[in-house]
Design brief:
By secondary structure, the protein is mostly helical. The chain has 15 helices and no strands. 88% of the residues lie in helices and 0% in strands. InterPro entries: Poly_Biosynth_Transport (IPR050833), Polysacc_synth (IPR002797).
Length: 424
């Protein structure tokens, strides 16, 4: 068992390290090729894919939870139905979002306060985002099948291969093609399509129990009940994590978006490192919950909370000490100095946010998404109030400070709620 955990963790770390190295190099390539303002525009629209993805309203986590539970219990008919529900949901959602985007595309671009070249480019790219969102959702369903079987090596290999392909494609575009930003998003679209096809082939070759089947009403409503609370969580997530670039672009400038994004990307990859290490606990907790092994879950969570927080502190200290040296050598002292205050504040946010990684997997694995719905309400309202208070005085830094304070409220809530669960 321990050997398998170490083996799975090793592949997740390899996946993360590869992604981090590629992203680190990409920042240099993109800032040089597009300029800091162009990089800000690129980052804004990459972030919009995540913002569009909020219409997921928790279906991805519901699919992952019940796939892990039903595969653990060998209920393969239920597995097929969960997959069908997920795919039908995302296809329907994708069509609706695409129609709305086409109708209101000028309003969206005007809201982003873009002008000139970036206004025209934004009108072209905004219609592509719902398509990318839908493809990504369906890829995640297929990925969740592999997660449920705990095939972390296969997942990591797929991720690494397509990240390398994406990186090589960006290099080619930067040095050989015009209309660079548009071509990058077309590249992403093609990669998503190929990744979807490859994922289908891998799953069909390895698992032969998938077939179309009639969806049971009680399973359908079980998932809808899960989404009832996730909907609130995901709506408030817009306030917590996906409006940053929109606010900066509209009320500050694209150059600040670029500076902000460099620091944010580093913090996000440190946070992703934690997610990659600890994502193996989700299918394990789901299976333990299916077997009603509640005491074991509780002990497992306590241990992982301590490990996760310790790792976040070590990563933050290392980043603070080495930031100016590495970023200065790589991107220049001007960018290193302008981003230093941002990374300091982001790392405080990382340390406070770290327990959320464990609590997120924990509460969703035991079918309590309502906990995150409650915390999202607390964080959402407090974050919105803090935006109003802090952004006029501190600008983009006020956004991060708002996240820190509201996230602290959220983590305290997770701790208190976990202690009050009767069966634990």
């Amino acid at each position: 068992m321990k050997n398998k955990i170490m083996h799975d963790t090793k592949w997740n770390i390899i996946d993360f390290v590869t992604s981090f190295i590629i992203t680190f190099i990409n920042i240099k390539v993109l800032t040089n090729g597009l300029g800091i303002e162009g990089y800000g525009f690129y980052s804004l629209f990459i972030g919009l894919i995540a913002t569009f993805g909020l219409v997921d309203i928790g279906m991805g986590m519901a699919v992952s939870k019940y796939l892990s539970e039903f595969i653990g219990e060998k209920k393969y008919k239920d597995v097929n139905q969960v997959i069908e529900i997920g795919i039908l949901f995302y296809l329907t959602l994708g069509i609706i979002v695409l129609i709305i985007t086409i109708i209101f595309k000028e309003n969206i671009i005007n809201f982003l306060n873009l002008s000139g070249f970036y206004y025209k480019l934004g009108l072209k790219l905004i219609v592509l985002l719902p398509i990318l969102m839908t493809l990504n959702f369906i890829i995640q369903i297929l990925n969740n099948i592999l997660v449920a079987f705990e095939k972390w090596k296969i997942i990591s290999k797929i991720n690494i291969i397509f990240k390398v392909i994406n990186f090589l494609g960006i290099l080619y575009i930067m040095f050989n093609l015009k209309q660079k930003i548009l071509k990058i998003f077309v590249l992403i679209l093609n990669i998503f399509i190929v990744k979807l096809i490859v994922s289908i082939i891998i799953i069909k070759r390895n698992y032969n129990f998938f077939e179309l089947t009639k969806i049971r009403k009680n399973l359908f409503f079980k998932i809808i009940n899960f989404l009832k609370y996730s909907l609130l969580q995901y709506l408030f997530s817009i306030l917590l994590g996906h409006l940053d670039n929109l606010i900066i672009a509209k009320f500050i400038n694209l150059k600040t978006v670029g500076v902000y994004q460099i620091s944010l990307k580093v913090m996000n990859y440190l946070y992703s490192f934690l997610i990659n290490i600890f994502k193996i606990i989700f299918p394990k907790i789901s299976k333990m919950h299916g077997k009603k092994n509640l005491f074991k879950i509780n002990q497992y969570i306590k241990k992982n909370l301590f490990i996760c927080e310790t790792i976040s502190i070590v990563l933050s200290l290392f980043t603070i000490v080495t930031w100016k040296f590495f970023i200065g050598a790589y991107l220049g002292s001007k960018i290193a100095n302008s981003t230093y205050i941002y990374i300091l504040v982001f790392l405080v946010f990382l340390i406070i946010r770290a327990p959320e990684v464990i609590y997120y997997y924990y509460f969703n694995a035991i079918a309590r998404p309502k906990v995150f719905a409650y915390s999202s309400v607390i964080e959402g309202f407090s974050n919105f109030a803090l935006y109003i208070l802090l952004i006029p005085k501190y600008g983009a830094l006020g956004i991060i400070l708002g996240h820190i304070i509201s996230k602290l409220f959220g983590v305290i809530f997770f701790f208190i709620y976990s202690k009050k669960l009767k069966e634990y």
